[in-house]
Each structure stands twice: as structure tokens, then as C-alpha cells.
Amino acid sequence: MQYHAQIYVTLRPSVLDPAGTAVESGLGQLGYAGISGVRIGKYIELNLEANDEADAKGKVDKMCDQLLTNPVIENYRFDLTPVAVTA
Amino acid sequence: MKFGVIVFPGSNCDRDMAMVTEGIFGQPTRMVWHQETDIADLDVIAVPGGFSYGDYLRCGAIAQFSPVMQSVIEHAKQGKYVLGVCNGFQVLTEVGLLPGALVRNRDLHFICDRVPLKVENNSSAWTRGYQKDQVITIPIAHGEGRYHADEATLKGIEDNGQVLFRYCDRQGQVTTAANPNGSLNNIAGIMNEQGNVLGMMPHPERAADTGLGLVDGKGVFEGLLNLVA
Fold it and tell me: Which residues of B are annotated as catalytic?
């Protein structure tokens, strides 16, 4: 089976995000009132071969832990969707 | 001591490092390409500054899996010396040889400057060339040098005396105003628990040649080579 993974990488809440703060103040200057908590993360997508959804989940978790994120500063979550393979 | 300077695609302080270890201190030095794995002949590994693998994904993230880094981990486990400067410090945290991480500077700017540092602890091999609490001036040049670690890790490295250099003002006061990048506890350089691995954002190799007018970085190499009187 082929799966499509959409991975969202976010800074841990304890890590200061100065870029987010700068964007938040930019939104304020544009006149958007009541904006708060702007945090900037990363979005990664990839396709992978796996036996089933549990296998795919395990593989993406491993990739995230090993390379795609740094657990010291980042959290992640992801969505998996099966990719229809035309015969 | 025989030095090896790791060269990744995108390293740009490798020759500066070799210029100091070989040119100034007369130590045999060879450049080690990132695909090499046999570094058994080397006593000290220097992981230099630059933008290894373009700093894609995160600074140092790709470099941690290069063939040579697996050998560097082994080298460190044997208790041999590893020095990571700037991007090299980032690589050493990514690979897990040093705790914590280096993230985007507080004010989002790339900072290229000469900054005062306070030598926190001069009982390590890396800092025995300095006096405790000595204020030295070393160049920094980075966009992602803000040291971050969780509370427990931070407490651990502080309690163990692993913090070797802190950003300070000219008088040696460790203040928020004197912190160029927002590093936790003004941390500029740390060593591992065993003391054989040092990571620092400031560039001692850029402050070791009398011709350049700034020699405060020499102490790191003098300490390591035990040239201290």
C-alpha cells in the first residue's frame, strides 16, 4: 500500500518563537484586532510504501524522531491517507 | 596532537580552523571529507562552522547522518576530543553528543560581531588557558545560535559546571542586554558531562592570529594542547 503523509512540525510551547511574534505584530499593524498566539511551524509531505496503516504510522513516527523533527525543540503530528494506485 | 577538520558540503570555516591548528600551533592537521569513516589516526576532531548541507530542514540536521559523524560519535565515546564551533556546535547537538539545541536568534537577525564572553569554569581542558571569570572577546556569526534546553537539562549542565562560556558585557556582567541571541542563561558554549566534547557558537579560530588583531580565542587551543604555563 502507498500512503500519503502530511506532517505538521511545531515548536514546543516552551520554545520562544520570535518569528511568530513578529508576524503577530504585523497582523496587528494591518488592523487585525485580537490576534494572539501566532506560532510558525513546518509542513512536510511525503509518500511511503507500507503494509498497512499501522505500519505506515510506525514508519512516519520513526522518521520524525530520527530526522524530520528535533524532539528537544519540536513536536509533530501527522495525517495519513491511502494513495490509490492504478493497476 | 593530530587534528582532523571535518568538511561537509557547505562548511566554510574549515580552512580557518586548519590555519590555526597547523599554521599557528604547528599541529599535524588533515581535512576529513564527510564521506570518510576512518579517523582512528586523529586525536582531536574539529567540526567547523558553515552551512553543512545547506542547513536544510534544521541547522546540522542532515550532517548528523553523514558517514563521518558515526565515526565522530565513536571517537567521542572513546574519550577523545571533539570541538564544534558554530555550525559544528549545532551538528553536535543534533547528533546527541551535546545536550540542548540551537534555535533562531531572539531578534531574528544574523549577527556578525565581536562579543565579550565570560569564562565560567577554567577547570576543563578547553578553558584551562584562561582565568575563571576572565572576560574575553571572540567573534560570533550566526542566525541560529539561541541555546535552548528543557529545564531539567539546563539545571543538569549548570550543576555539573558544563557551561564554559557565557555572553556578558565588557565588565563581565551576565545580563539580558549583553545576550546577543537570547540564549538561555546567556549560554555561548558548553561541554559534555565527560568534558571531552565542546560546542560553542563564538569562533575561537577567528581570534587566534596576531595578524588579525584579536587573539582571545587562542586559549581554547592552548588549553587543549596543554601549553598553559
Answer: 86, 203, 205
What φ, ψ does residue B64 adopt, rounded to 5°?
-60, -20
pLDDT in tens, B173-223: 999 999 999 999 999 999 999 999 999 999 999 999 999 889 999 999 999
Domains of chain B: 3-224 (3.40.50.880)
- Distance from the Cα of A18 to chain B's closest Cα (Å) equals 6
Measured distance CA(A51)–CA(B107) in Å, rounded: 46
pLDDT digits over A22-80, tens only? 999 999 999 999 999 999 999 999 999 999 999 999 999 999 999 999 999 999 999 99
Dist CA B120 CA B189 (whole Å): 10
Pairing of strands B3-7, B44-47: parallel
Is A18 in CB contact (< 8 Å) with chain B? yes
The distance of Cα B80 from the centroid of its chain, to the nearest Å, equals 15
Min Cα distance A80 → chain B (Å) is 21
Query: Which of A22, A67, A73 is the closest to B103 by Cβ?
Result: A73
Nearest CA in chain B to A15: B148
Cα end-to-end distance, chain A, whole Å: 12
Which ipTM score applies to this complex?
0.84
Q: Which residue of B has its CA nearest to A44?
A: B57
What's B59's DSSP letter?
Answer: T
Q: Which domains does chain A carry?
A: 2-83 (3.30.1280.10)
Q: Give B100's contacts in chain A (Cβ within 8 Å).
A: 72
Q: CA-to-CA distance for B40 and B63, rounded, in angstroms? A: 20
**What distance in Å separates residue B96's CA from the closest CA in chain A?**
10
